[in-house]
Amino acid sequence: MNIDTPKNFSAKHGPDATPDRLIEEEILKQGKNKEIPCAKAFEIAGTLQVSPDAVGMTADLMNFKLTKCQLGLFGYQPQKKIVKHPDRVTEDLKNAIEDQLVQGRLSCRSAWDIASGLKIGKMKVSGACEAMDVKITDCQLGAF
Question: What angle do CA 127, 37, 71 make, to 5 degrees?
Fold first, then answer.
């Protein structure tokens, strides 16, 4: 697919899926250029008291691109991914990640929980995962 060819994000939800109207209104208010940043999507979820994946699905159905992942894994231009590989990973962070692995992978939700529990930035957790060759899965917005 050419980089200039728009993606059809709605295709992954099937032909019968429809956007939630309240979420759609908020995405239209807060999005720009058919894009919605991860942080704004989570803000919408909190305000409307809906799940992040409901916001992600509605964004997909509106063909809005999710951008600026709070873990730094996607949605940044031009390099797409901005997470940094640290020189070293602290023992407490390494242990926290290893304790949450499922089949050698860490969920996005677990990465957020680790960051909160250790009072560190989310990108420190994703950076440690990069250093440890741990793949982060199950985006809470459904992007991956």
Answer: 10
On whether the CB atoms of residues 114 and 100 are closer than 8 A, the answer is yes
User: Do 108 and 138 form a contact (C-beta atoms < 8 A)?
Assistant: yes
User: Could you state, in order of their start, the residue ranges of all structural domains in the chain?
Assistant: 9-67, 91-137
Which class for 102: exposed (0-12), middle (13-18), buried (19 or more C-beta within 10 A)? exposed
C-alpha–C-alpha distance, residues 138 and 144, integer Å: 6
Instruction: State pLDDT tens for residues 13-42.
Output: 988 999 999 999 999 999 999 999 999 999
Q: What is the DSSP letter of 13?
A: G
Strand partners, 106: 136
CA max distance for the chain? 48
